[in-house]
Design brief:
The chain is an alpha+beta fold and about 110 residues long. The chain is built from two helices and six strands; from the N terminus they run E-E-H-E-E-H-E-E.
Length: about 110
Protein backbone atom coordinates (compact mmCIF):
# COMPACT_ATOMS: atom_id res chain seq x y z
CA UNK A 1 0.00 0.00 0.00
CA UNK A 2 1.43 3.36 -1.05
CA UNK A 3 0.92 6.10 1.55
CA UNK A 4 1.71 9.72 0.74
CA UNK A 5 1.12 13.15 2.18
CA UNK A 6 0.94 14.54 -1.36
CA UNK A 7 -2.20 14.66 -3.51
CA UNK A 8 -0.49 12.90 -6.44
CA UNK A 9 1.90 10.00 -6.86
CA UNK A 10 4.89 10.28 -9.17
CA UNK A 11 4.74 7.90 -12.14
CA UNK A 12 1.25 6.71 -11.12
CA UNK A 13 -2.18 7.49 -12.52
CA UNK A 14 -5.13 7.72 -10.12
CA UNK A 15 -7.93 5.67 -11.66
CA UNK A 16 -10.53 5.86 -8.87
CA UNK A 17 -11.07 7.89 -5.73
CA UNK A 18 -12.60 5.58 -3.14
CA UNK A 19 -13.22 7.93 -0.24
CA UNK A 20 -11.91 9.25 3.04
CA UNK A 21 -10.20 6.77 5.36
CA UNK A 22 -8.90 7.26 8.88
CA UNK A 23 -7.34 5.53 11.85
CA UNK A 24 -6.88 6.51 15.48
CA UNK A 25 -4.77 5.47 18.45
CA UNK A 26 -5.27 6.73 21.99
CA UNK A 27 -2.60 6.67 24.67
CA UNK A 28 -3.92 6.02 28.18
CA UNK A 29 -4.77 8.55 30.84
CA UNK A 30 -1.50 7.99 32.68
CA UNK A 31 0.72 9.01 29.78
CA UNK A 32 1.28 12.54 31.12
CA UNK A 33 1.86 11.47 34.72
CA UNK A 34 4.18 8.74 33.50
CA UNK A 35 5.92 11.21 31.24
CA UNK A 36 6.83 13.53 34.10
CA UNK A 37 7.73 10.60 36.36
CA UNK A 38 9.99 9.27 33.62
CA UNK A 39 11.72 12.55 32.89
CA UNK A 40 14.96 10.87 33.96
CA UNK A 41 14.87 9.09 30.57
CA UNK A 42 15.87 12.36 28.93
CA UNK A 43 19.05 12.04 26.92
CA UNK A 44 20.24 15.04 25.01
CA UNK A 45 16.89 16.78 25.56
CA UNK A 46 14.84 13.85 24.20
CA UNK A 47 12.63 11.36 25.99
CA UNK A 48 13.46 8.20 24.06
CA UNK A 49 10.91 5.90 25.70
CA UNK A 50 8.07 8.35 25.04
CA UNK A 51 9.14 8.88 21.46
CA UNK A 52 8.80 5.12 21.01
CA UNK A 53 5.27 5.21 22.47
CA UNK A 54 4.28 8.08 20.18
CA UNK A 55 5.82 6.33 17.17
CA UNK A 56 3.88 3.19 18.04
CA UNK A 57 0.62 5.17 18.29
CA UNK A 58 1.35 6.80 14.91
CA UNK A 59 2.06 3.40 13.35
CA UNK A 60 -1.20 2.02 14.80
CA UNK A 61 -3.22 4.93 13.39
CA UNK A 62 -1.61 4.53 9.95
CA UNK A 63 -2.19 0.76 9.99
CA UNK A 64 -5.90 1.23 10.79
CA UNK A 65 -6.18 3.80 8.00
CA UNK A 66 -4.54 1.53 5.40
CA UNK A 67 -6.63 -1.47 6.49
CA UNK A 68 -9.77 0.61 5.91
CA UNK A 69 -8.43 1.64 2.49
CA UNK A 70 -7.74 -2.00 1.57
CA UNK A 71 -11.34 -2.92 2.45
CA UNK A 72 -12.46 -0.27 -0.06
CA UNK A 73 -10.25 -1.82 -2.77
CA UNK A 74 -7.55 0.85 -2.67
CA UNK A 75 -3.88 0.30 -3.33
CA UNK A 76 -2.80 3.76 -2.15
CA UNK A 77 -3.76 6.53 0.25
CA UNK A 78 -2.96 10.13 -0.70
CA UNK A 79 -3.19 13.44 1.13
CA UNK A 80 -2.38 11.80 4.45
CA UNK A 81 -2.55 14.06 7.50
CA UNK A 82 -1.38 13.14 11.00
CA UNK A 83 -2.86 14.95 14.01
CA UNK A 84 -1.88 14.75 17.66
CA UNK A 85 -4.54 15.91 20.13
CA UNK A 86 -4.84 15.92 23.90
CA UNK A 87 -8.09 14.94 25.57
CA UNK A 88 -8.69 16.17 29.10
CA UNK A 89 -10.63 14.02 31.56
CA UNK A 90 -12.75 15.55 34.35
CA UNK A 91 -10.52 14.33 37.19
CA UNK A 92 -7.47 16.04 35.74
CA UNK A 93 -6.08 13.11 33.77
CA UNK A 94 -5.42 13.29 30.09
CA UNK A 95 -5.08 11.15 27.02
CA UNK A 96 -3.24 11.66 23.78
CA UNK A 97 -4.92 10.77 20.49
CA UNK A 98 -3.05 10.26 17.23
CA UNK A 99 -5.24 10.40 14.11
CA UNK A 100 -4.31 9.61 10.53
CA UNK A 101 -6.60 10.46 7.61
CA UNK A 102 -6.33 10.50 3.86
CA UNK A 103 -8.05 9.66 0.58
CA UNK A 104 -8.15 6.03 -0.54
CA UNK A 105 -7.41 5.66 -4.26
CA UNK A 106 -6.71 3.00 -6.84
CA UNK A 107 -3.67 3.78 -8.96
CA UNK A 108 -2.04 2.25 -12.02
CA UNK A 109 1.55 2.53 -13.20
CA UNK A 110 2.10 4.97 -16.05
Amino acid sequence: MLVSTTSTLQDRTIVRYLGLVSGDAILGANVFRDFFAGIRDLVGGRAGSYEKVLRSAKDTALAEMTEQAERLGANAVIGVDLDYETIQIKDGGGMLMVSASGTAVFVEDR
